[in-house]
Design a protein that fits this description.
two-stranded antiparallel ribbon; 3 helices; seven-stranded mixed β-sheet; alpha+beta; single chain
Length: 176
């Protein structure tokens, strides 16, 4: 530490050697920088309806001889892609609550025919139900820190065993 003419202190940066990381598996789980996205799922009322839509889109791609991957196109390209692809997911807000997530597998920026920059978020087609977390309406997507993300629900247990209509009604009453 040294001082400068204004009387304050200056800290001198000392370079340190960091290990090279070749794959995600080499990073201890506790030190990963996982980040998620949250987005409104417009036009969908239930998780089952979203799964039907995903299944339909994949079947259409297969029928047309295209690679059966599930993509969501967005206008904004996430600047924190490395953190998102380190185990991150896209959490969907359905009817005012985060209800489900899909793991992000790739982020592909592109320019469309009109010259507008866009981005494909490539997602696993499997939906994972989560604990419900209320969210107000917003445009686009938002980052979601791992520690703020709702936990996954186990298949057919607890709140997940309730019919979707009952879950929605209980959530609207503030009971979920």
């Amino acid at each position: 530490m040294t001082s400068h003419p204004g009387g304050g202190r200056l800290w001198t940066a000392v370079p340190i050697a960091l290990p090279q990381i070749e794959s995600r598996a080499q990073v201890p789980y506790e030190t990963r920088m996982t980040l998620h996205l949250v987005k409104l799922c417009v036009g969908v009322s239930t998780i089952e309806e979203l799964q039907d839509w995903v299944d339909y889109r994949l079947a259409e791609k297969r029928r047309h001889g295209q690679a059966p991957e599930h993509k969501h196109t967005t206008r904004m390209v996430p600047k924190r892609a490395k953190e998102l692809l380190d185990g991150g997911s896209l959490y969907w807000v359905i009817k005012g609550n985060i209800q489900v997530r899909q793991r992000l597998t790739a982020i592909r920026p592109f320019t469309d025919k009109e010259g507008i920059h866009r981005c494909d978020l490539v997602l696993e087609p499997k939906l994972v139900a989560t604990q419900w977390q209320p969210r107000r309406a917003f445009q686009g997507w938002r980052y979601l820190k791992a520690e703020e993300a709702p936990a996954d629900l186990s298949e057919g247990t607890g709140k997940n065993a309730l019919p979707p209509e009952l879950r929605l009604e209980l959530a609207e009453l503030g009971l979920l």
